[in-house]
Automatic annotation (TrEMBL):
Domain of life of the organism encoding this protein: Bacteria
SUPFAM superfamilies the record matches: Xylose isomerase-like
Protein name, entry field: TIM barrel protein
Domain Xylose isomerase-like TIM barrel positions: 27-290
InterPro entries in the record: IolE/XylAMocC-like, Xyl_isomerase-like_sf, Xyl_isomerase-like_TIM-brl
Family matches, as Pfam families: AP_endonuc_2
Amino acid sequence: MRIGSAPDSWGVWFPDDPQQVPWQRFLDEVAHAGYEWIELGPYGYLPTDPARLHDEVGRRGLKVSAGTVFTSLHRGPAVWDATWEHVSQVAELTRATGARHLVVIPSFWRDDKTAEIIEPAELTAEQWSHLTTGMERLGREVRDHYGLEIVVHPHADTHIDTEPNVERFLDGTDPDLVSLCLDTGHYAYCGGDSVRLIRTYGERLGYLHLKQVDPDILADVVKNGVPFGPAVARGVMCEPPGGVPALEPVLAEAQKLGVDLFAIVEQDMYPCPPDQPLPIAVRTRRFLRSCGA
């Protein structure tokens, strides 16, 4: 299991935002915290010139595990061209870093900054069909054109969120084309059990995001229907080991699979004070070592 972190753990959600730390500081601090692997984060946050990115990452002793894309494939064939243009841009940079994975996040049904509802929270049967066939096509095209594996990330305030929806998505997609990025925090946020998911769908697990939820804040978020963005601002995603799920059994269950896995720490903290992420990252890395990771 290869442990890393991501710009998300430094409060980075967007390519450019005045509330985020500069990318140079993120790279310096993630290396200082003891991580070897990073994700690219939102495209355009880190340098997009492959040579410069390679130099900046390499001279800090870091390596890239994955890039990230957002998709809205449930909207059908009409969005394919725009989707592929975006995916190709990120996939090309990801491949240039030597990474093998592309984390695919479904589009939000409400805006993660304004909390405005964009579309219905539930998909129709036709939209589910568009989503599953579209992801299979994406997996095939990304593999054939870039040699990368897509890992689909269930996420709060998207259509792949709860246990039933995650299972429906996995049951409806080809294992040879679509793998899962299990984010333990998002899955707990949406009521799912990460250990049970790994036991049931272990052969689909291609990637891990390690994250915890504060159960008290989550209870209030659920009770009052708080959108994900404001919930994060309240601190719903918390520093381990203070939340749920317990990461020790999740890591133990994943290690039983006997496969090579990335486990990337992602503590959603947008927005956060610039001096907050580094001490948390150092403590989190120490905690994960105590778990044998």
